[in-house]
């Protein structure tokens, strides 16, 4: 058995406490309404180097949210999920652990499919954590260890999504444009390719500059009509002056920031991204004009990307192909006694 996450806590009292997880992050497949959930599975391991006495041994899995209230210096804190295992209960007599002992306590928990995913953005978060505690007699300090658990969601295969994002329109009845990005889904650190075709119909305007920005948009359940936007990165480039009856084919690359948070849609926090394009122009009077184009994009975690593009294969062989044959009815066994009664 292989494990993907281990947290270790040591104490001078001769006890080592470890939380060993089978999978971390835990991936929920499908939407909150259709997901069958996920399994939190692992082992709590206690290793001793000398004889000790303890009162109890417990493990807690807890999910909490801390959501900013927009336009106010306050937060809304909520308990999202709670489950506790007690491996050694507190009794009248202390539990004694032998020296050089290794004690393993397996645990497993089915998580509901509608759990909100883990989020960690400025001033707001949804986090999950395992906490193990060895409670010792009152004069001795308890031994603790904690392990963060990340919950992610994969809604469906990326191949089912729109392969590219496009936007077409006219501005001031003088300019026509077609803008596009090659695909909808990206990973942090990946390059985004932007393309744009511009046709200027009137000589009073000239194109001067095109700039790109990756925008993060956050919406909180504490105030649904309030959105917070943050510019993650920006890139601009001067373009040749184009006048009437001139066409421009323009392309540009911008990198998704390596530390960009993945998109998420929960009842508590919604986080999304967009490519904001700013087109600058100048008229004959040297007055500056501009307009914006908004192209929605999605940022996925590496785990979401891997599972969506390459779903895990089953280890068991597929069933044999169906052999189409005419249905036949087996001849019933003959009961001599029944025949004699006819």
From TrEMBL:
Residues 171-304 form the Arrestin C-terminal-like domain. Pfam families: Arrestin_C, Arrestin_N. Gene3D superfamilies: 2.60.40.640. It comes from the Eukaryota. One of its GO terms (biological process) is ubiquitin-dependent endocytosis. InterPro entries: Arrestin-like_C (IPR014752), Arrestin-like_N (IPR011021), Arrestin_C-like (IPR011022), Arrestin_domain-protein (IPR050357), Ig_E-set (IPR014756). One of its GO terms (molecular function) is ubiquitin protein ligase binding. GO terms for cellular component: cytosol; plasma membrane. Residues 307-342 are annotated as: Disordered. This is Arrestin C-terminal-like domain-containing protein. It comes from Basidiobolus meristosporus CBS 931.73.
């Amino acid at each position: 058995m292989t494990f993907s996450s281990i947290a270790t806590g040591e104490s001078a009292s001769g006890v080592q406490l470890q939380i060993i997880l089978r999978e971390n992050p835990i991936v929920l497949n499908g939407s909150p309404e259709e997901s069958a959930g996920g399994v939190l599975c692992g082992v709590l391991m206690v290793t001793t180097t000398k004889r000790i006495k303890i009162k109890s041994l417990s493990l807690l899995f807890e999910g909490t949210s801390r959501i900013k209230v927009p336009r106010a210096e306050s937060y809304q804190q909520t308990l999202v999920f709670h489950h506790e295992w007690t491996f050694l209960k507190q009794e009248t007599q202390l539990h004694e652990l032998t020296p050089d002992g290794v004690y393993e306590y397996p645990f497993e928990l089915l998580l509901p499919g509608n759990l909100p995913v883990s989020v960690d953005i400025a001033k707001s978060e949804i986090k999950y954590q395992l906490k193990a505690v060895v409670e010792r007699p009152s004069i001795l300090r308890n031994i603790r260890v904690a392990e963060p658990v990340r919950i992610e969601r994969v809604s469906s295969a990326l191949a089912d999504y729109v392969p590219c994002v496009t936007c077409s329109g006219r501005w001031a009845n003088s300019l026509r444009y077609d803008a596009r990005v090659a695909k909808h889904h990206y990973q942090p650190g990946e390059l985004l390719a932007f393309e744009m075709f511009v046709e200027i119909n009137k000589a009073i305007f000239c194109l001067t500059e095109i700039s790109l920005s990756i925008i993060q948009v956050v919406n909180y359940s504490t105030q649904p009509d309030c959105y917070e936007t943050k510019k993650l990165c920006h890139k601009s480039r001067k373009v040749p002056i184009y006048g009437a009856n001139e066409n421009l084919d323009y392309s540009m690359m911008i990198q998704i920031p390596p530390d960009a948070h993945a998109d998420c849609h929960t009842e508590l926090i919604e986080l999304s991204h967009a490519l904001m394009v700013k087109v600058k122009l100048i008229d004959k009077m040297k007055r500056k004009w501009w307009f914006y184009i908004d192209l929605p994009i999605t940022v996925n975690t590496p785990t979401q990307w891997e599972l969506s593009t390459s779903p895990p294969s089953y280890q068991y062989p597929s069933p044999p192909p169906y052999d189409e044959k005419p249905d036949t009815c087996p001849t019933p066994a003959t009961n001599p006694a029944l025949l004699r009664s006819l």
